[in-house]
Amino acid sequence: MNTALRRLASITMVMFLVLLVGTTYVQYVSASSLNNDPRNVRTLYREYGKPRGPIIVGGEVVAQSTPVDDPYGYQRSYLQPELYSSVTGFYSVVNGGWGLERSANDLLTGSADSLFWQRVQDLITGAQPQGSSVELTIDPAAQQAALDALGGQQGAVVAIEPSTGRILAMVSTPGYDPNTLSTHDTAAANAAYQELLGAEGNPLSNKAVQENYPPGSTFKLVTAAAALESGKYTPESMLAAPRLYTLPGTSTTLPNFGGSSCGTNDQTTLADAIRISCNTALAGLGADLGDDAIREQAEKFGFDDASLAIPTTVARSTYPTDPNVAQTALSAIGQESVRSSPLQMAMVASAIANDGELMTPYLIDTVRTADLDVISQTDPSSYSQAVSPDTAQQLTDMMLSVVQSGSGTAAQIGGVQVAGKTGTAQTGVDGESPHAWFTGFAPADNPQVAVAAIVLNGGDTGSEATGGRVAAPIARAVMEAVINQ
Question: In the annotation, is 405 catalytic?
Fold first, then answer.
């Protein structure tokens, strides 16, 4: 009997121990995550029971909380939803937060550490707690120009102020109406979400920062930068530029656009190779430089950085880790497994525009309390010295020639010097039309805006698309909108 009692006592003690550990884990270890889980109805009631801070662009509210007569108390509403959906995202009682509504949630709800003393003050005075207002760097004119220029095509545009890193425009098409997701009618909100998930063009995905694509010939700027930084090449260096380039170690040949050679006697200068976007010259240059040199240069521009956030999470742009020589040659022209977000290519152009210094891109300018007191203001910060000032000037001169007399003439702006680079990127999927790219900046002698534009699968032009024909006019419209203010 004593043995049985001891066993029962031991089992009971183990059960109590398991219960104690489990309770401790739930109450202390998991408390924060459980409390902040968007599926937690009490969390939703708590958050919706007080005004969520507004999101402001150019002094105008684009997202706000309005009082409603239901258990939640307030409902999120979006003004000009199609124009700013790629920036604001949405906040939903059913599907949680997305975009800036998610990444800046602690500021918008007033739960950020920086708002601690404001919460203490509200507690003492009895004032109703409110979220902070978040003022963005977006330029309304540039944002509108980007949306209008993209039209009904699937694609994205990012514009950056080179000297600061301020994001002036961020548009992804097709967009969507966040108001259909923020409704408190849970059945309607869920139906709208499911419809968007299955919609053509994946509207919920912010193609400007959350997706990456083969950058095509826009990546030739990175390869040219690596060559110039090596000290072994100048813009006048002669490169082999045959009609066909046989990838090292293979029998596969790489053609130029149009199938011709790029210069007299199958040779051209580095500057002219960039101007006319010569595949064979840049692929051969990439093979000579080697993958380490190109990767190191790409990383200085921001490639392979998984931590970048604006504060919205940014998809990592990638350069292959261990390519063979043939793969390095293809990577040098932005193909193989090189992938870039539109933000990343705007960062490349921005660094070149800013004497080689890449500024960290950011979307939130100022955070204020409900009483308009400034809580925080973003100070521009340097991300890296991507290239030397001399290299930046040499690249700028090459990019000027691209727009003046090369593949990017459609980006020309009367009376303004525009520097740019086109790209027409094969997707690697049989039967798919290429992506059309353009990246550049203006004015070249006093840069105010750097931009990257992509139109997926050629847009309305389809298989006939080129970056110069399709994407360059979109970038031009955005640059004009910034310059003409």
Answer: no
